[in-house]
Amino acid sequence: MRAVSDFHRTAARIGASAAFAFTAPVAHAASFDCAKASTGMERLVCGDAALGSRDEILARLYSGALKEGKREAVEARQRAWLGKAQACATAACLAEAYDERNAELQRSEGGVKVGSDFFCEEPKGNHSTLNVVGPVHGFASVSLMSNYVGPGGEEAGDVDTAATDAFLDLRKGTATVLNGRCRLTFERLGADGWKVIQAGTCELQGGAVFAGVYRRLP
After folding, report:
1. 153 and 144 Cβ atoms separated by less than 8 Å
2. Per-residue 3-state assignment (H helix, E strand, C coil) for 52-69
3. 3-state class (DSSP) for residue 38
4. Which of 99, 147, 178, 183 is the most exposed place for a label (fewest CB within 10 A)?
5. Cα 141 from Cα 115, distance rounded (Å)
6. How many Å apart are CA 215 and CA 218, to the nearest integer?
7. Contact criterion met (CB below 8 Å) for 50 and 58
8. For residue 94, which phi and psi values (nearest 5 degrees)?
9. DSSP state of 30
10. What is the pLDDT of residues 171-189, one digit of tens each?
């Protein structure tokens, strides 16, 4: 789980398919044809269900970022990320690289449009948004932001913000991610909602909270 605010935020990433050709045939557990995998990175992606889903999610986000952002800048960051990802010799290293890049793309103007937005306004004064890409083969990428408006009001700058990003394994129905002593559990409530449970010590700024039931706007 990566975070901003009183959490720790990271960023950087892209997918094997989007990096090499930017377009490729869809194959099992990846956005490219695993039968033609030739590099160490491609073989790692094709041999791991979670990495394959990360790659499919990245391809969607990258495509969205290209449509809405400055194409040359988006492509340059993608190439830079690819160099980092190709240096990974393990699935764990590559998963971290994908997660960082997917988080960055999902927060971009084009990337956020790829996902679906869900909203929560509890407790009072808290306004939270959960952006979800997926599930893809039982996995999803989420970007979560909470804004708490204090008694002084927004015009007075009495606003606390917290944000976090995570890659979820939902194959057993729920997914729990950890950041130090903070634990967030995500549960999908059908197509129109999510439940987030916050436990432990999350050290979020002011009155910001992530917990709640998130719904689509009608």
Report:
1. no
2. HHHHHHHHHHHHHHHHHC
3. coil
4. 178
5. 9
6. 9
7. no
8. -70, -35
9. B
10. 999 999 998 899 999 999 9
pTM (two decimals): 0.83
Which single residue is written with the structure tokens 């979560």?
Answer: 144
Q: What is the pLDDT of residues 9-18, one digit of tens each?
A: 333 333 455 5
Q: Chain-wide mean pLDDT for the chain?
A: 85
In 3-state terms the chain splits into helix, strand, coil percentages (rounded to 5) of 35, 30, 35
The DSSP bridge partners found for residue 213 are: 195
- DSSP-derived 3-state class of residue 164: strand
* pLDDT given at position 7: 35
Report angle CA 151, 157, 159 to the nearest 5 degrees: 65
For tokens 């039968």, name the residue.
Answer: 35
Q: Which value, in Å, is the radius of gyration of the alpha carbons in the chain?
A: 18
Q: Are 130 and 121 within 8 A, CB to CB?
A: no
